[in-house]
Amino acid sequence: VQLQASGGGLVQAGGSLRLSCAASGRTFSSYGMGWFRQIPGKEREFVAAIAWSTRNDASTDYADSVIGRFTISRDNAKNTVYLQMNSLKPEDTAEYFCAAARFGGVATPADEYDYWGQGTLVTVSS
Q1: b/e string for 68-79 if b means 16 or more Cβ within 10 A?
Q2: Looking at residue 88, what is its pLDDT?
Q3: 33, 21 in Cβ contact below 8 A?
Q4: How far apart are CA 115 and CA 42, in angstroms?
Q5: How far apart, in Å, are the Cα atoms of 104 and each of 12, 23, 98, 107, 108?
Q6: Which residue in 33, 73, 98, 101 has the fewest CB atoms around it within 10 Å?
Q7: Greatest CA span in the chain, whole angstroms?
Q8: Which of 60, 32, 30 lies closest to 48 in space, CA to CA?
């Protein structure tokens, strides 16, 4: 599986961005997908995850810091997972990575993911 993240950019505090992660492969719907973020010098941090599903009812999980502001979703027909980020804060500034887990469920530890895309940079100005 190859993952390609996009959608990062510079936004003012309170603004919104939508990140996309396009995946290759015919078994996308069977993978659990996740978003992580990383600041230089710090460990990669879990942001959101969504389980496998062939319908629009996949289980999701979020880091406490983004609950109510971020929404993860997937479109299996497009082999794409999204991260809608609203009410952005300067502390959301980071490089964001998408990842895929053969496990298929909702996974929060980074080491449960098997494939990683390149990062996309999100900068939130105050």
Answers
A1: eebbbbbebeeb
A2: 98
A3: yes
A4: 20
A5: 35, 15, 14, 8, 12
A6: 73
A7: 42
A8: 60
Contact status, residue 16 vs residue 85, Cβ threshold 8 Å = yes
Which regions of 1-126 does DSSP assign to beta strands (E)? 3-6, 9-12, 17-23, 32-38, 45-50, 60-62, 70-75, 80-85, 94-101, 115-116, 120-125
User: Which one-letter amino acid corresponds to residue 110?
Assistant: A
* Phi/psi at 30 (5° precision): -90, -5
pLDDT tens for 15-42 read: 999 999 999 977 888 899 999 999 999 9
Mean per-residue pLDDT for 52-61?
A: 85
Q: Token pair for residue 79?
A: 């082999």
